[in-house]
């Protein structure tokens, strides 16, 4: 298992998405870089590779989400989650074995790690359900509100100070959500509620991740999350299992391998580039949501989803920028 804990502290690993948690912090190491032209060139190359890896990783996650939506027309989400998670364990197991020490899997904060894993497991169930009822673009628009929720929840749950600029960004972000949902003007369904619930559970898991800090390994957090997902999904699958066709089994296997590979890609991206450069690529998923929606599902996002998404993404990027500024000021103090 990787010994790098900064990757987990700076970013939250998740089957679908990444939300920035720290700013100006290189996940590859805490060592200073010698300011020579050669060192700067090498560092620049690493950052570019990290950003490229982030873009590729979020493309992988978008492909996985499209596969979930495509499979959900024939199979229960619990069956999709269970089988794909079993296949996702393959690349994750490779990560663990490369570390050479199983002791690193032992959590230092077992209750916090378990709580985070359960929150993420419920989050996954809810977001997969949302994919069955909403277009990918509409679901993503609601899921992108996580940075605003984390900022708002960090005040009562972590005692953090949030200035008026970030509070303004939070309010603007929630206005974007209202633009997407248009309550009272557009019918809402369980998919909208599931997406909003998923966002809340994911935000709470990030609050716990901030509590955990740098003390847990990536392998420990990944494995605990997958175990929690299987504990929730396997019993539910027993009542809804449908034998998959050969083609669908291949898609399920590919879905799981994509998710597991995506996890490893995020770890690698966070080693190569600072989190504040990696995280914005999360929003590239909206492009893929529109493309897959049009090509695979015939979904064309309306103007309200597009406008609301732009507002939400702008709010999230501003919060990211403000967090980066604050972290640099704190480091210089």
Explain what you see:
The chain is an all-alpha fold. The protein has one domain (6-332). 73% of the residues lie in helices and 1% in strands. It is built from 13 helices and 2 strands, in the order αββαααααααααααα. The protein has helices at 6-10, 37-71, 77-99, 110-133, 136-143, 146-158, 164-181, 190-212, 218-237, 246-272, 275-278, 285-297, 303-332; strands at residues 11-12, 19-20. The protein has a two-stranded antiparallel sheet. Strand 1 (11-12) and strand 2 form a beta hairpin. Helix 5 (136-143) packs parallel to helix 13 (303-332). The longest helix has 35 residues, at 37-71.
Percentage beta strand: under 5%
| Helicity, as a percent range | over 70%
Show unreliable segments.
Answer: 1-39
Total of domains: 1
The strand order across the widest sheet is: 1-2
Specify the biggest β-sheet.
Answer: 2 strands, antiparallel
The helix-strand sequence is HEEHHHHHHHHHHHH
| Total strands | 2
Supply the number of helical segments: 13
Question: Which value, in Å, is the CA radius of gyration?
Answer: 19 Å
Q: Helix/strand/pairing class, anyone?
A: mainly alpha
| Spatial gap, N to C terminus | 35 Å
What global shape is seen? globular
Q: Kindly state the mean pLDDT as a whole number?
A: 83
Topology:
Layout: H1 6-10, E1 11-12, E2 19-20, H2 37-71, H3 77-99, H4 110-133, H5 136-143, H6 146-158, H7 164-181, H8 190-212, H9 218-237, H10 246-272, H11 275-278, H12 285-297, H13 303-332
Antiparallel strand pairs: 1-2
Helix pairs in contact: 2-10, 2-12, 3-9, 3-10, 4-8, 4-9, 5-8, 5-12, 5-13, 6-7, 6-8, 6-13, 7-13
């Amino acid at each position: 298992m990787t010994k790098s804990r900064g990757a987990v502290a700076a970013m939250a690993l998740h089957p679908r998405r990444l939300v920035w948690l720290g700013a100006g912090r290189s996940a590859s190491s805490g060592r200073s870089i010698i300011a020579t032209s050669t060192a700067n060139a090498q560092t620049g190359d690493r950052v570019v590779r990290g950003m490229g890896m982030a873009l590729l990783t979020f493309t992988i996650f978008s492909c996985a989400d499209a596969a979930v939506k495509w499979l959900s027309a024939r199979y229960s989400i619990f069956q999709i989650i269970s089988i794909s998670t079993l296949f996702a364990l393959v690349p994750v197991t490779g990560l663990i074995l490369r570390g050479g020490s199983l002791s690193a899997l032992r959590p230092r904060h077992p209750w916090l790690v378990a709580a985070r894993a359960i929150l993420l497991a419920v989050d996954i169930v809810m977001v997969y359900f949302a994919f069955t009822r909403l277009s990918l673009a509409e679901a993503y628009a609601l899921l992108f509100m996580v940075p605003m929720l984390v900022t708002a929840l960090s005040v009562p749950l972590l005692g953090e100070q949030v200035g008026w600029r970030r509070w303004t960004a939070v309010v603007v972000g929630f206005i974007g959500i209202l633009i997407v949902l248009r309550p009272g003007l557009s019918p809402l369904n369980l998919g909208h509620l599931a997406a909003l619930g998923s966002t809340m559970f994911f935000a709470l898991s990030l609050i716990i991740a901030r509590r955990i800090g740098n003390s847990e390994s990536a392998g420990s957090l990944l494995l605990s999350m997958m175990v929690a997902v299987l504990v929730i999904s396997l019993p539910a699958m027993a009542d809804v299992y449908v034998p998959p066709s050969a083609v669908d089994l291949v898609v399920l296997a590919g879905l799981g391998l994509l998710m597991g590979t995506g996890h490893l890609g995020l770890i690698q991206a966070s080693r190569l580039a600072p989190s504040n450069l990696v995280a914005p690529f999360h929003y590239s998923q909206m492009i893929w949501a529109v493309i897959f929606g049009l090509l695979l599902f015939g979904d064309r996002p309306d103007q309200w989803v597009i406008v609301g998404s732009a507002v939400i993404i702008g709010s999230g990027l501003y919060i990211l920028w403000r967090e980066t500024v604050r972290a640099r000021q704190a480091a210089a103090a």
